[in-house]
């Protein structure tokens, strides 16, 4: 955790992985119109990853108004969802793959 925090704090934006991933998320939701992100870990040990990302991302970014209360004319965040392995295999995995 320390090394990625240090990388985020010190790396220039053009090679800063957290910044680039955040910009890809904005690009997908705002410019490409892809409103959802599937988080599909293979390992059952990561079963709490998707709910954690949902809480952090959607609570922070899922606002429909600006900081001054003005309604936004664009999407400010995406819908994050997911389950590990077989938990989601027979539900939404089928929809995604077909």
From TrEMBL:
GO biological process terms, semicolon-separated: gluconeogenesis; glucose 6-phosphate metabolic process; glycolytic process
Q: Which CDD domains match?
A: SIS_PGI_2
Where does the source fall among the domains of life? Eukaryota
Q: What is this protein called?
A: Glucose-6-phosphate isomerase
The record's Pfam families line, in alphabetical order, gives: PGI
- Which UniProt keywords are listed? Gluconeogenesis, Glycolysis, Isomerase, Membrane, Transmembrane, Transmembrane helix
Per the record, GO CC terms? Answer: cytosol
Q: Which organism is it from?
A: Selaginella douglasii
Under the heading InterPro entries, the entry gives: G6P_Isomerase (IPR001672), SIS_dom_sf (IPR046348), SIS_PGI_2 (IPR035482)
Keyword field contains Cell division: no
């Amino acid at each position: 955790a320390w090394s990625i925090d240090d990388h985020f704090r010190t790396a220039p934006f053009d090679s800063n992985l957290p910044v680039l991933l955040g910009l890809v998320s904005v690009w997908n939701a705002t410019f490409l119109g892809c409103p959802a992100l599937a988080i599909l870990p293979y390992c059952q040990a990561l079963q709490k990853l998707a709910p954690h990302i949902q809480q952090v991302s959607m609570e922070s970014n899922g606002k429909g108004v600006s900081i001054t209360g003005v309604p936004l004319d664009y999407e400010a965040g995406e819908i994050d969802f997911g389950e590990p392995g077989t938990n989601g295999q027979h539900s939404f995995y089928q929809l995604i793959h077909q």
